[in-house]
Amino acid sequence: MELEIDSKIIALSEAGWLENLDEWTVDVANGIARNEKIEQLTDEHWDIINTARKYFTEYGIVAEPRVFSKLMKEKFGADRSSSKYIYDLFPYGLIKSANKIAGLPRPKGCS
Length: 111
Prior knowledge:
- By secondary structure, the chain is mostly helical.
- It has 2 domains: about 1-35, Dissimilatory Siroheme-sulfite Reductase, Chain: A, domain 1 (2-Layer Sandwich); about 45-100, Arc Repressor Mutant, subunit A.
- The protein is about 50% helix and about 5% strand.
- The protein is built from 5 helices and 2 strands.
- It has helices spanning about 25-35, 45-60, 65-75, 85-90, 95-100, and strands spanning about 1-5, 10.
- The protein has a two-stranded antiparallel sheet.
- Strand 1 (about 1-5) and strand 2 (about 10) form a beta hairpin.
- The mean pLDDT is about 90.
């Protein structure tokens, strides 16, 4: 699978995960989002994407859903930390959709 962004081919895994994490850009995120059936990333999407990327940069691992919910609650309040809120924005959830769009590595056991 691949994306074409500004005449550059970006390799994706068969499940749509970025093969080379260094190729992640805002345009790549938008392309992956379209593959995930999200036509436009809103500020709320970007809050989740940026929080996930920051956690990964700081700790070298993808945040587990419970940890991520706590981060969102601390940063944005309880109404923006629930699983429902995340699933409303990312139909396939934090692990399978938001992290994929954020250009993070595919967690073990995730298809």
